[in-house]
Amino acid sequence: MFDPEIHDGDEHVDMFHDAVGGLWPFSHQWMVEASVLKNGVTAFEVYLEKAAQEVIEGWSVTVDGKPGPHLLRLKTPKGFTSPGWKTLVTAHTVLGSAVETPDVEWARDLRHLLTHQNGELRDDEAVEKFRDADAEDTADFPHDAHVGGRVHLGVERVVGVLDNLASVVRHADVAVHAYVWGAKRHTVPLEELHAAKCLDLVAE
Q: What b/e sequence results for 29-49 when a residue is b if at least 16 CB atoms lie within 10 Å of its CB, and e otherwise?
């Protein structure tokens, strides 16, 4: 315990640092914000996969020269359980919605930075791409983006990213709903999805 009668200077700072294992409040806040952002981007990708899969679910096709019929699923790389990003983008484009917007690309790049570099800005290009001067000015502690430092997040930025993703989901959901429940449910563009290499055939 810090006792002003005994201790001088900044010993209380060192005591607090030791007590929390170096995890200052702003560090904990950053970890929470990074976790929310990463999970939000991942949930967005999971939605795109499930939505596109729901459109083709239940359909089966016969292929010349192959025993059938075959059920359909989104094309998935060997050894993986989910389709790649480009497959999701292409499939939703065929279905009538653009899901690879500039905001989405930026959010996925930021998720990559947080996941694989723990938010570290390793070069000037990263600093330029991810810095938020307005957020830095209003931060609770001095934080100027620099090479070797961590990207600044903040509640406003995190919520903004999630709002952008939600906007894309709302648009994609209209197209998906039309094919699953609406007027287009009997006209799913299977040939177009196949031509775009978005489909795998699975023997029943």
A: ebeebbebbeebbeebbebbb
Write the pLDDT tens digit of every residue in 128-153: 999 887 766 665 555 678 888 889 89
CA proximity to 86, closest of 197, 165, 200, 175: 197
- pTM exceeding 0.70: yes
The CA–CA distances, whole Å, from 179 to 111, 127, 155, 193, 202 equal: 31, 42, 36, 13, 21
Distance CA 166, CA 148 (A): 32
In tens, the pLDDT along 54-71 reads 999 988 777 776 656 788
